[in-house]
Design goal:
- The protein is mainly beta.
- Helices cover 8% and strands 43% of the residues.
- Pfam families: PapD_C (PF02753), PapD_N (PF00345).
- Keywords: Chaperone, Fimbrium biogenesis, Immunoglobulin domain, Periplasm, Signal.
């Protein structure tokens, strides 16, 4: 039964792919500049027949309420149409000496057709989560070079990454002597003024290299540093 189940799961994933690709979001992350009252993000539906119901909201790192309002919070996105999500800051008092991370959630629900031909079709609700960084006005300049300031040290079999900047740094990859450093997606996001520890690949002792994801979703050039031990 297990091989049959794997085949069914693979077919199910193939069926679901077009649905997941139905709604296109115009970005991989959002940077909210502190000197603005709002920012925006485009959402489009390239399909020719299927409309979607779009629901959007912002929450904190642990799911708590965030000081942002998304408008419209709920709307119908017809085939071939595009709409703009406006993200509005609803209160002041956020930290001004560093960035703060929130999550923008965009849920897309395909319209269900009431016809016999689609009676047994699978319809999926897809929720996309994008990082939303609140960047204080005083930190408007400097984010582009923050990744170059990362430092790495070795303590025993542990590789420590130190972020001395007030910006979030999103690592794309880390390797030690050409060997990939294993880390979860969450662990690749370095908070401002924070340190994160990773298991050091066996036998790695000479050089660390890394690259990060920029505000625009692209990758920086690879940066290298000779490992130092403590």
């Amino acid at each position: 039964m297990k091989p049959l189940f794997r085949v069914f799961a693979a077919l199910l994933m193939i069926i679901c792919l077009p649905l997941q690709a139905g709604v296109i979001i115009g970005g991989t992350r959002v940077v909210f500049a502190g000197n603005n009252k709002e920012t925006s993000l485009n959402v489009s539906n390239p399909e020719q027949e299927r409309p979607y119901l779009i629901q959007s909201w912002v929450e904190g790192e642990n799911g708590e309420k965030a000081p942002f309002l998304v408008t419209p919070p709920l709307f119908r996105l017809d085939p071939g149409q595009e709409n703009v999500l406006r993200i509005v800051l609803t209160r002041s008092g956020l930290p001004q000496d560093r960035e703060t991370l929130y999550w923008l959630n965009i849920k897309s629900v395909p319209q269900l057709e009431k016809s016999n031909s689609e009676a047994n079709m699978l319809h999926l609700t897809v929720k996309t989560r994008l990082k939303l960084f609140y960047r204080p006005a005083a930190l408007a300049k400097g984010a582009e070079e923050a990744w170059r300031q990362l430092t790495f040290t070795v303590r025993g079999n542990t590789l420590s990454a130190q972020n001395p900047t007030p910006y979030y740094v999103n690592l794309k990859q880390i390797s030690a002597d050409g060997k990939p450093v294993q880390a979860s997606l969450a662990a690749l996001t370095l908070a401002p003024f924070a340190r994160h520890d990773y298991p050091l690949p066996a036998g790695a002792a000479g050089q660390i290299s890394w690259s990060v994801i920029t505000d625009y979703g692209s990758s920086t050039p690879v940066q290298k540093q000779t490992l130092s031990r403590h």
